[in-house]
Amino acid sequence: MRHGLVFGDIRMIHDPLARRRRAGLIGAAAAGLVAAGAGLLAVVDPAPDPGEAAVLRAESGALFVRVDDTVHPVANLASARLIAGGPEEPAEASPDALAARPLGRPVGIPGAPGTVAEEAPSPEARWAACVAPDGAVTVALTVPRPLADAAGLIARPRADGARSGTVRDWLVTAEGRRALPEEGTPEGDRVRAALGVDQATRVWRPPTEVLAAAPELPELTAVDLDAAGASGAGGGVVELADPTDAEVCTGGPDAALSLHAARPYGAAVELPGEGTAQRFAGPGAGAFAVDTGHGVQVISDNGVRHRLPDPEAAAVLGLPEPHPGWWPVLRLLPEGAALTAEAALEVDAPARP
């Protein structure tokens, strides 16, 4: 009857109303499935709620730190942990969860580390100041290959003459550096003759600060050489190495001098500022702590070092055990801001985008 009233035809050859009913049922079923899927997704993967976590991470990656009931955009992970007072891991927070909390001003220490290493560097690694054949200086944490006991080279720092009007030559070995008596004096000539040093000797020309990274030993005298005897190449008491095409590194007492045909370290980053060193080659796994002998400092991936107020601050940052350092090399790295909770709270800084 409905077919006849609507279409004026009671033969029921075609039944478009049935097709409409079927389409309606299919649409309702699809809508039900979509609603059920959305409900299941809300249960399985709900919008992240950080609860009472002290450090929050937005979906964009931006970090926030909770101070009382207020969340503050924070510049980096180190600042967030200093403010939180412990090595908190960032909790994921949805936009709704962040919007539900009062938003405070941006805080944080500009340039503080954004990542922290999970492990300390290899205990075999040593700090070294390396000069490439082109004169570029790299501060590296590497495993050096010290020269043999009877090997060394003659060094003449680049800046000595410009500063004092005199040129001081040094004998550098795996043990350290020893000043040579002044050239042209009887003692100086005798020492150079015993070493086999003449006008053809290849001299290493490092920056003064790089040479100073090798431990200083007493001045070399003819008496010392007479006692050592002639054991080096060419009749000298030391076999003098040619530094011309080598990467030459200085460091602490157990690796005061090493020569390498190729770079003894991995990838290096450019250092900020105009210091003696231009590059830094570290582990690249996040910031780590170093015992300088005068306190603990933090070295970031970009080679900037940060002072800690006390050893306990390293635990607050979640740093691994401090790696042994060598201050004459570490001092070549640019110094950043001290890592303190007070500095993290007092200094405004833009949040990471």
Automatic annotation (TrEMBL):
Q: Which residues form a coiled coil?
A: none
Gene3D superfamilies associated with the record: Type VII secretion system EccB, repeat 1 domain
Highest taxon above the source species: Bacteria
Question: What Gene Ontology terms describe where this protein resides (cellular component)?
Answer: extracellular region
| Pfam families, sorted | T7SS_ESX1_EccB (PF05108)
Protein name according to UniProt:
Type VII secretion protein EccB
